[in-house]
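anyone seen this seq b4? input:
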Amino acid sequence: MPQRRRMRPEVRRKQILEEAVRLFRSVGYEGASLRDLAVRVGINKATLYHYFESKEEILFTIIDDVGETLYRGLLDVMEKENDPLDVLEAMVRFQIGYVEDHLHESKVLVEEQKALGPDFAERTRVTQAAILSLYEKTLTECMDKGLVRRVHLATAAFSILGHINWLYQWYNPEGALSVRELTLEIMEILRNGLFLRGGEVEECHTCCEEVG
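predicted toks r here
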């Protein structure tokens, strides 16, 4: 009988993480078991320990991979623009695009990272703080050039990330708003706020009667 071809370790590891994302998204981290994950992957539970020491390490790896991808991607788009406001828009567009392409990972990032113990949680905070600092740097440049009002820096940066991080709950990639249109809407809200000032006429820049 011919032997089954063994999967390369890096390929198997990737498969485990992909199935873990789906499992955590559907039943939550606490509701998931390594036995369930092993069944999804098509291996026995003991084999999982060749790749990860614990369920917590799997969760950390998912969250850490998302953070590193976002950080490197944001650095890359920052280098391609000169005007600070263009840089900020490119950063928002990139991160919205990531959420669109990785809705399951985004849900796990936001909703399940609270399950991490102190050591893993601190490591994720380092990456998240680095991402926040990129937005703060760009916002500072926008303020220094008079492109946006001077506001509390951390509040503004967290506001941007808050707009983006929760998109997975309601954004429909097949709905009325494209990534570009959604970026413009968010930038408009961030730039001018929601409330009309005296003499202004209400105007909608994109078709937003239906998002999902």
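The chain has two domains: 1-52, 55-192. Confidence is low (pLDDT under 50) at residues 198-212. kinda curious what u guys think
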